[in-house]
Amino acid sequence: MTQHSGSSFGAPTSSIPRRKMLKFSLFGAVGLVLSPAALTACSNGSKTALAGGQEAVALPAFAAPVKPTPTLPGTSDGVMDVYASFPMNGPVTVKDVVGDGSEFEFLVMTYGQPAPPLEENAYWQILNKELNLKLKPVMVPYADFPQKFPAMVAGNDLPDVVSVPVNMTVNRLPELAKTQFTDLSDFISGDAVKKYPNLAGIPPYAWKNGLLNGRMYGVPKTDPVFGGQMYTKPDVFEKAGANLTPKSLEEFEESMKAVTDPKAGVYALGNPITDFILQSYGVQNKWTQASDGTFTSHFESEQFIPAIEKMATYYKAGYFHPDTATLEKTRRDSLFRTSKLAMTYDGNRAFGIIADDRNLVFSMMPSFGFDGTATPTYWTGKGAYAITMLKKTTDEKKIDQFLKTMNWLCAPFGSKESFIASYGQEGTNYEMRDGVAILTERGQREQDLGFAYIAGGPQVLVNPQGAPGVDAAIHAWQTSVIPYLAEDPTAHLYSPTQNSKGASLEQGMTDAITAVFLGRSSSASLKSAVSTWKSNGGEKIATEFAEAVKA
Amino acid sequence: MAIDVKSTAPAPVRRLSRKDLQSGEPDRKVPFLARWRRDYPLLIMVAPAVIVLMLFTYIPLLGNVIAFMDYVPFLGIRDSEWVGFDNFTALFADAGFWNAFSNTLQVTALQLILFFPVPIMLAVFLNSVMRSGVKKFTQSVIYLPHFLSWVIIVALFQQMFGGAGVVNRFLINNGISPLDIMSNPETFKLLITFQGIWKDAGWGTIIFLAAIAAIDASQYEAAAIDGAGSFKRFWHVTLPGMRPIIVLMLILRLGDSLTVGFEQILLQRDAVGPGAAEVLDTFVYFNGVVDGNWGAATAAGLLKGVVSLVLVLAANKFAHKLGEDGIYKS
Amino acid sequence: MSRSTETRPAWMGKPTPFASVSRALGIVLMCALVIFPFLVVVSTSLATQTEIDRNGGYVIIPTEISFEAYRQIFNGTQVTRSIIISVGITVVGTLFSLTCTVLAAYGLSRKGSLFQKGLLTFVLITLLFGPGMIPVYLMVKNMGMLNTYWALIIPGAVSAFNIIIIRGFIQSIPQEMFEAARIDGASEWRVLWQLVIPLSRASIAVVGLFLAVGYWNNYFGPLLYLTDTDKWPLQLLMRSFVLQNNISSTAQQIPGMVRPPQQAVQMAFVVISTIPILLAYPFLTKHMSKGMLTGAVKG
Q: Which of A240, A522, B207, C298 has fewest C-beta within 10 Å?
């Protein structure tokens, strides 16, 4: 009550995540080609329209890179290649020296501790040597990004290279890019990208994230197409005699009922599963575009309220952990690991956390239709984690060096460059065990430099330290959901209202959903929440999306 | 004013008649020059604080004009659009804002009634402990929770009192229906008040212990000689001795009325929903900071300042009625 | 001289055995309420991950002690350096800030002194209206303090709250003592040094503690003003550890650098960051002994 000293800053500071996250499986890779919709929309040379009438520049031409033979091959739909381990002695894809020895300062959002200083950091040192650059990270913890970034923008203090996660709302990003960052279109659009062969290996669906105002501003860090998934603990299901692969919500509920045992402190779930249930109802990914070009939000779909009602009945029946509303991820993961939670709904890289653990056996629940016959959907992500931009400059040498650095970073899986970016230096960062490179504790720690997260091509599945068969299981699951992939048609459209009010509008809906889910409000309240959402900006957002497509 | 203070420091002139200028003397009768000679050292003393406040509070305060703008960081104040009172009218038109406002005042009221007296009572209690070893130990232990971050405290509370916590697991296993402690909207404000007491009451005693320490010990002696028992001594010596500081702390707390446990509430808000848990700071966070809507966030800050001003002035006036100086007396 | 004072009216006079017992009970209960969570924090920092998982996140008494978390933290120079930085900022910041605060508090304490009213208002307004983050950032930048430790020390050094508190204590010193000193011909500086500071020791110590804790715990200033991670103080490092793992996740995908949650390491960080504050406390209590005023008046 009386503590009151030190700093005097106006805005409240927060420890709270804007959003969600996961772990990685960080290897840049080959093979993965675009989901079907992405293919048709923007394969080589196609044009994307933009607001304001003029045409967008062509996305960089895609040229599939050479890849080592996978243990289990992926598909062009998005199933990832599986490798037993990282191939040693891969080909060199970048022959020229990348840098001129100058400083390469980059802003990167982090989820962990900052990397150890250069003089103690073998990984950093080897990257500096390989690239002939002086890498200098400017780290912003994710929770503080919404505050630090605007301050740096206002003070004109952004470093030369800025990496922005695509799910962070950056105030008026297109305008910001126009005034602050370099338009890379002339250097990478269409066939120009051939000068940087590894950049040509980035699929168009990832490049779309770097397209602002119809021009190319950012180089993406490619993400798999998969969004959230339902992770399960087979041991809990087995013990309860529950069905691991239910075919309808009814069967799903039976499984939840079977695994829940409050006396033992075991619950089916520890986080809300709104999206999972909506998908079982076949609801489209966030927005649906009608044939007349208008957009409708999933909040307005007729299945929305029944889906939330369904979830509320599950909560009422006691299948959810009682602290679900406020359970932190750390604790939820811990409960899942120790079989106190039978399932957890998490992002597509959550397996990265657990796939490293040989003793942890988990699986994933395939998609199913709510009544056992309906076709479900499976919602994809944006295709990239972040885009990396270069501060405004006309110095072509500088632009070239930036793109060469990105080119090095986007070297395909299996190449010497991607091996160094993933493993660093032998002896200190990794050790060889049975011909397989294994990151040491120090190696893992030094990766916190964040450099490998600012750009990259498609990723692959390679978890040599995970439980046997884990990658194959993920591969099988990915194959199973491919038929249901549903893209968000607005993923790469810009709406000023979405940008300025989207987060608070969504918070309002989240609050309304939570209230019904926890049984505080009747499901009728959702109707008024949706109409508030619409009148406060939802309607305008829909109009703006429609205009963005039409123009 | 600040310039006067720092730039003018003439060589000291002999203090001619300091005796005549003592506090009893009504100031307006004293000529300016004499007051200057008498008081310039005081002005020099205030100077460093004034300079720091000028540079890092007052000049940046000019930036609060963005309350009347649609401020965009990369455009800066110069090129952002003026919107007049739009940010304020938008706040006033938002039912969520009034809900947050009302919740904030309710939490403050609860804290004033339940929390505010606790450190005072604790300080008096600790002071009554005779053994200095025990006393020192207790003192240094009870202020510890202040240093745990809310993330950890909330997690510990959940572990103990949550729906699957130690207490409820015990109840369930004994066939008793579990208690809804952590996610009951009705009692949420009480919950966070008690969490606050647990975390910060010990820390809050420090200032009151200092107040007790500053009491002239000879007064106790005199009271004891007059035959006052321990309670009388508390009532007639300790309490009046602490009173100025208690009043001061109360006014300062009132000035902070619209600021209640941002992080603590944000972490637990989802368990009970915004209806019961949204306070001004979390509201501003969701509607200003997260959206990058700096103009609205600043407008809310200005409103808070105005409300605080009114509360502080009122409390100060009340303090004068009680015969205390409060924080300001002309 | 007995100074035992009771809290409850019913127990006037000598403390009864019942009163003593309840007082002892009160102390034990209070300490237990506070120590228990700390025990949990310390125990968890010393437990193995398996045991932490088995207990659902926290451990009360570890069956097997492991210093692994501490080894990990002190592996390399990062944390050690950040502790030194934090101590440096705290010491320099507290001294600077306390100097400004005490000077201003005394300078504003005498009623009717020149400009007193105006200056006091000037200070009090900052209690109610604060500048936004971005304007302060721009000012710090314009002063050339960006990426220096001064940015953490100076901008927040003066708080009206602290000035008002010390001023309140100074004003409770009996007026006659000031008058006596001034009649003796003491300058304001001497009055401050020889009368005010010794008599307000307790309050200065308290405010000093507030300030020290404020500097010690400040993570937002470093976050905003320091671009070199090598310059990060302990609290910011700790924040990246303790908070970063607490991210709620659903469908969104972000490749993080998050390894399995290391609860033990987080708790060890808490322990490490609390110890220096514990060490500071005895300095404070030394200045809070009672009866200072008696001596002063008599002497």
A: C298
